[in-house]
Design a protein that fits this description.
Number of domains: 3
Structural class: alpha+beta
Number of helices: 12
Radius of gyration: 34 Å
Largest sheet: 4 strands, antiparallel
Strand content: 5-15%
Distance between the termini: 75 Å
Shape: rod-shaped
Helix content: 40-55%
Length: 287
Amino acid sequence: MPDLSTTELRANLIKVMSIGVKPLAPAAILKALPVGGRPSSKLLKVELARMAADGLLVRLPGKTDKYVAAPIESWAKRALLDELGSGPKTLAKLKKTLTPAGTPLWADLSASLLAAGRMFEHPPRTGSGPTLFALTPPDPAAYFAKELEKLIGGLVKRGFEAAAVRAAIVHYLGEAAQGDPTREEPTGGGAPAFTADTLLAALHRLDPRVAQGATVPIGRLREHLHAQGPANKARFDSLLLSLAGRGVLELQSHAWPARLTDADREALVSNGRDGWFDSVALPRGPA
């Protein structure tokens, strides 16, 4: 065996123990030391015990003693973050990672990591599921996706097109940004508000065959939604054009715009190029 000084051996041991976060038994530590710097197994165990007594290492008792770098709080934090690097984990899994020696640190350590934004709590995905912890915030889509598919499936069974249902959901919930013409806003004076949701529902009420490609006259839809007044007409027209531009609806042009009277045009929607849309339908295609 090489004649190693205590200083050299300790330096080698600290270097080995600082590389990873997994607790190591003496045999694993001996194997990790440089070939020319390996003491006898007996001498290694003596030195490990001395370093633990000096506060340089922490001994984790068990069937076989294992060691981690001191202080144990720093090791526990690194161990948790390393474990979370492979994805969300349950509390049981994280406490197992900490080992019995580090488990009492969980409360303070988790509170610190959560407050610092280095760890995030994920609510159970089912009523009886476990709470998870991860390095990133929970994604709401992971929670509502299955329920949303159930909702869509239920409406499809009732005769709606899946594409139309999805479009309605997106524009009702996801497009409610400031200034978006599909966003529901108070119109004042008790006048109705128009949204993608109310408009699509009105189409299905006026003609249930719209899901199979039937068209609905814009004048009839406008009257059904009480969109005759100047303010309501502008909002209604803007909503139709916005939804058509996004592929949620299809607007069909009047075949003879030159023959339209002023009164006729009031009931229709201008295309901005001397043409007029007179009917609306849902886009056809695969669900």
